[in-house]
Fold this sequence. Notes:
The chain is mostly beta strands. Helices cover 14% and strands 39% of the residues. The radius of gyration is 27 Å and the shape is elongated. The model is unreliable at 8-26 and 169-176 (pLDDT under 50).
Amino acid sequence: MARKKYSFLLGLIILTCSTSVLGQDNVWSDSSYYQASKLPQYNEFMNNLYAFPPKPRNMWEVGVKVGTPSIVGDVPANFPTFGWGVHVRKALGYTLSLRLEYMNGKASGLGWQAASNYAKNSAWVDNGYVPNMVTASGDRLSAQDRVFYNYETKLNDLSLQMLFNFTNIKFHVAKTKIGLYAIAGIGITGYETNVNALSGSAKYNFNNIASGTYDTRKDVRKALKDLLDDSYETPAESSSETQMKFFGKSAVFNGTIGAGFSVRLSRRLNLALEDRITFVKDDLLDGQRWSEQPHGDAAMTRNFDSFNFLSLGLNVNIF
């Protein structure tokens, strides 16, 4: 009998330490957290006949979220924009879970520095804008039309993520707690990018707006917004590298990382604030990939684009 008591005490100490680390409070004493097949071990544990309680149920979670997607690229992003997402999540243990998430959103951007070296950017050249050029004899001709890069991108993103909880993946706590977690995953991103290059059927006259600096960016963007309509009528440049399609749009594979924290509202509900950034091997999410040099024969910019999704979600935990 003494041996059984010591075994019981050891099991209780181990469980208490583990639940303290993971943020669980007295889960072991509530039979509702165990599957029917685990109840015999639970009863033996509660009657001092078994050293350890059974493993609690691995829970499912469904959630919805709203947030603001923004592209990190060659054109400064607008903030805020609007996006939404849904997910299904399955706990694999106390610290690890899998989540399948779909995100849909619209990101936009507007530059404050004028560009002249856009000869390879079809969205502007095909609409009659005249960029920097080099003649057959080598003469360098300056642009007749300066432009300010802009875009609107519709995003569809599907990813399978692993979530690493630093508190308690199962939210088995009777009172409100904060849960911290990290995110890593892979998926596919579909996108459609358009440019606002025309007012009706006429090109804009950007030449009357001075190119800005970081300090004057607000004034320049205000002047541009007064000039531009909201049409985004011109398809942005596309890449032969994005032949894959997702929801009928150009698509690329991605990798994603992020972090978040959740607050329990009740035994079943939690509210989660998270930020996730998605990396793609594509430089055209914002419709622009050309630098201002060399004159008339622009080189590609150095880095691929990525996009960020800051969101607030409501999640429901179910068995």
